[in-house]
């Protein structure tokens, strides 16, 4: 494992870690709202590291990356785009597959909107969101809608209770107590104001989806109550290169609930996308 400090958009310092072989095809994992690079543990501690260069980051405002408390650090899509571009350029990633989970879908599409597709080989949208705002609420379920407001409250007991409920609602298949404890810990590292800043954006990336030419894999749990399966259908409707992999009886975290299948499909997609 290697640790990098990458200078991202507007000079923000990003905490980045990588596993695997330096000369292998790269995969860049982008986590979701209030999460952390540790959510990908079932990927970087798997045989994927024997075949690929696995790169994870803590998004701005999360984990060990810089977490400024100014709204413009999170409302400006160019900053998210430049964060991803900085990792690709400063680490010398040769046409990575981008894996964007949940809010990571927005970050991925911010990058594509500003920097194009020439430096990436493909995209894996995992329970990913591509629209947000009042008109987009039909694409979100109670796991998010009922818990996100309280998770943005400064009152610590309210905050903790909301995050506990949120994390339990993200999964359908049981996960280990260890995985839950780690997730609870890294969620609580995120300042509630940062959580609030992230969900104040009004977003519609469907026009960007229509311009995508690289291969796209849409991975979605049929029982996802955070980002509803209708969001995956929306991606497929607007992205001509998209193919879907549906997980029956799985919630919002397919890579944690069914990691062996997820890793196998990701490996197959990465190899195909890299020709």
Automatic annotation (TrEMBL):
Taxonomic superkingdom: Bacteria
Name the UniProt record assigns to this protein: Pimeloyl-ACP methyl ester carboxylesterase
Residue ranges constituting the AB hydrolase-1 domain according to the UniProt record: 25-259
Keywords: Hydrolase
InterPro entries found in the cross-reference section: AB_hydrolase_1 (IPR000073), AB_hydrolase_fold (IPR029058), AB_hydrolase_sf (IPR050266), Epox_hydrolase-like (IPR000639)
Keyword Hydrolase appears in the UniProt entry: yes
């Amino acid at each position: 494992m290697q640790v990098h400090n990458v200078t991202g958009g507007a000079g923000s310092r990003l905490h980045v870690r990588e596993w695997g072989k330096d000369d292998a095809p790269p995969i860049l994992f982008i986590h979701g709202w209030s999460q952390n690079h540790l959510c990908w543990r079932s990927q970087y501690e798997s045989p994927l590291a024997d075949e690929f260069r696995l790169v994870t980051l803590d998004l701005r405002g999360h984990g060990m990356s810089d977490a400024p408390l100014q709204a413009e650090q999170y409302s400006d899509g160019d900053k998210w785009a430049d964060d991803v571009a900085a990792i690709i350029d400063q680490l010398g990633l040769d046409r990575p597959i981008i894996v964007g989970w949940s809010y990571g879908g927005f970050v991925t599409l911010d990058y594509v909107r500003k920097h194009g597709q020439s430096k990436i080989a493909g995209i894996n949208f995992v329970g990913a969101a591509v629209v947000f705002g009042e008109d987009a609420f039909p694409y979100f379920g109670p796991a998010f809608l009922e818990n996100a407001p309280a998770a943005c409250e400064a009152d610590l007991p309210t905050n903790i209770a909301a995050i506990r409920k949120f994390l339990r609602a993200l999964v359908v298949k049981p996960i280990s107590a260890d995985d839950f404890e780690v997730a609870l810990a890294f969620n609580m590292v995120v300042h509630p104001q940062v959580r609030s800043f992230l969900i104040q954006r009004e977003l519609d990336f469907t026009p960007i989806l229509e311009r995508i030419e690289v291969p796209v894999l849409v991975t979605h749990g049929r029982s996802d109550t955070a980002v509803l399966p209708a969001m995956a259908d929306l991606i497929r409707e607007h992205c001509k290169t998209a193919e879907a992999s549906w997980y029956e009886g799985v919630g919002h975290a397919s890579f944690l609930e069914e990691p062996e299948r997820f890793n196998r499909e990701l490996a197959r997609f990465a190899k195909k996308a890299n020709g």
